[in-house]
């Protein structure tokens, strides 16, 4: 799709002229930004920073280290998350899948309360296979396609990430293409938008209505390190909050704004930005 | 006795009947019909003129075909005075004994006389009737005078993005304008990605925009009717023709006649492709990695045929075509894009005089708009070409309309008619990795019954009452919508008049388009998921003639509410067509509210003429799914919009003109913050829709014309400059945080916000040369 957008505007761009004049607009206050994960198999984590203004200068160091972060279970019990490193908060507590949780964050930029969130069930993934993938939108010859079958009770929202481990750290790789049938079912490329951004592909619930789902991802073998050609595929069942946040967070290029109204950011907090979302992740390793 | 009485009774009835028949025949014999055609002596073009007789207080008018008719008593002297603002008055006196058909030729006033008499564009009563001569005295964009762009210089009519042709009339959107060329619908009026409209000014006889007070014969759109009429062929013996050559395009027009027919043929084409040849050669020889090509053409043709004195037939066809190709080399890949779009129109019209003074007007029209977009990608190592993306759409319309006009008496006239239309929409999407996706052709039947009554209550008060009943059938859904309309005119004095009007309009088809001038029109008919849109409008104002400056001042206010509008939902745009049936994904049941005050001032002083228009308006939208249901500013809410046009006829040869436009910047969705996304990258996030406004828009265009005659042929040079002081009027802004450095340990980066915007019309000179193809008559 991108090639058409680019080429489409070739004439206009040639005729166009730039300007750097500013405009009058609404001044929005600095607000906190929270990304908090509620994982089935690990402790609760939250990363807290604040937004930067849209005029003037700013720095990347915007972590908030003096926040008060409280996990609320079923509206009653509460657990305090402690600061572990710059902007990182953790609670030594593994959440219960049967409970509903919300998050309370107090910062000097304002206080935030999330909606209630549950942890979804872990996805079940069946066998996989590999095959060359040469026919397609991109005609690279070194692409492989791998397919998995998600079985059993399908999660409402599924997030897919592909990568490899290097120095004990997960390195995501660009997902070149997703099974076409899935893209069509998902409503025209909404899945691939996310792939371009964070190497994460989200699937909406409409895509997951059948009894089982075949997911195929094409990737470039050459990006994997020679010594460690083990592909790690992360299947995460997510709560809707995570999906909605991802679906709305698009990095618009200049020309996009000529054609498309930008999405306002989604948040399940009553103030600020970010999400508090439930995850249940399954890792599959593929030896190439 | 009874029988006798019975017989007597019968004979009495028979006698009465005979007496009545004879007297009626005698009476009938005294009433004769005077009718005729008025045309310009030099060009044979029909003239809409006023007619006065020695027994009529009120003037009659000839229609757009120059036709008129009225009743008269046989053997009674008739003094008929025919006048038009741009022609010399003519008086005919004779004693008609039976039905009479007249052909009246009026002599056009010379240029200086025209200037002196100021043949004006008619503005007021919620409409603008364009004086085509005025159109020619406005600096043209890219050498092409453009009727749609000229309309935007009048109050209440605005253009969207700079350079585009879509009209925004009283807060409406371009799809809410019914564009008619000889009664046939034009779905997309854009050439050259919107920089030129499809109306070739050389082939246009007249053009009128109705912003309110819509005659009930028009329906199917909410905001305006743009009624354009193609030129008729020359009815004089002289053949006519002219050729105009500009920097980017040329056009030619020819007209002539036969015994009972006349013809007009006009063509226009751009040769931008010639200027692009060097770049195409450089691309072929790998000196550059991208290139493009563009070609555009349009053809107007019209034939008039008059088989008898009382009937006239016209047949016109119109064809436009735009062809755009671009290539981009991104080794090892090559991307190609092809976009073709165009309109095809055919129109058959009949005007006839029936018995009892009825005038019948029939029309049968066909319109088609089609575009096709195809993006191809190939690998240089692998010569196979794959279609990566293709999108096409075809929109068809067939219309049959018949109406009867009757002047019942001096005070009352009526128009009554029926219109039947059929729409057919066929959007398609295709990409190589999925099957051809056909979203299902959709069709819509539209029937309109209409009645217009014009009643002169007194010499001062006139009422125009109209009623249209529209029926829409789309798939299984049926809608019947009454559309009442009424307007009042009160002539306070010879120089001052007031008007007041109310109109209800319905629109069964909606358009999804970015308003960017791009050809990707996707029409969505009303049906199961979307109801027809409805607009209610009230308007009122006054118009005052200013004899001291040979000018006019008019002020008019309006308020309009529009229901059941549609819009793109968040995250969708015109290239989201593959997402599924449009009537399922769009935001529905939107409400538009708009109101404003329009001011128009025109004056003429010796060889100098000017007009000034100013509009203050407010335009909002409200959708459940946008901005959490809150009211927000519409995309092209121009709070203030002012246009000034100046024209100076320095001599018979030299004419100078200037147009200045000043507008509020349009609303747009501005960023509200920068946040780090979950991947740790800095990312701009945006606020509610249309939360800010672009800077003020202003532009000055200057032009000059030099007219002369050489070797018996009239010639004209036109030259000037668009955007004389090179003001960049961007239509979008983009915020890019630029990294300016890091701390010494490299753990913290520093950024500076940079806003950049794009404008498309820089300082742009133009020149064109026009020559008559045939020598002037001696």
From TrEMBL, chain A:
Domain of life: Bacteria
InterPro entries: DUF4249
UniProt xrefs under Pfam families: DUF4249 (PF14054)
Name by which UniProt lists this protein: DUF4249 domain-containing protein
Organism in which the protein naturally occurs: Marivirga sericea
UniProtKB/TrEMBL annotation, chain B:
Main location per the UniProt record: membrane
Any one cellular-component term (Gene Ontology): cell outer membrane
Transmembrane listed as a keyword: yes
Family of the protein in this entry: Belongs to the TonB-dependent receptor family.
Pfam families, alphabetized: Plug
Subcellular location: Cell outer membrane
Membrane topology: Multi-pass membrane protein
Record-given protein name: Outer membrane receptor proteins, mostly Fe transport
SUPFAM superfamilies: Porins
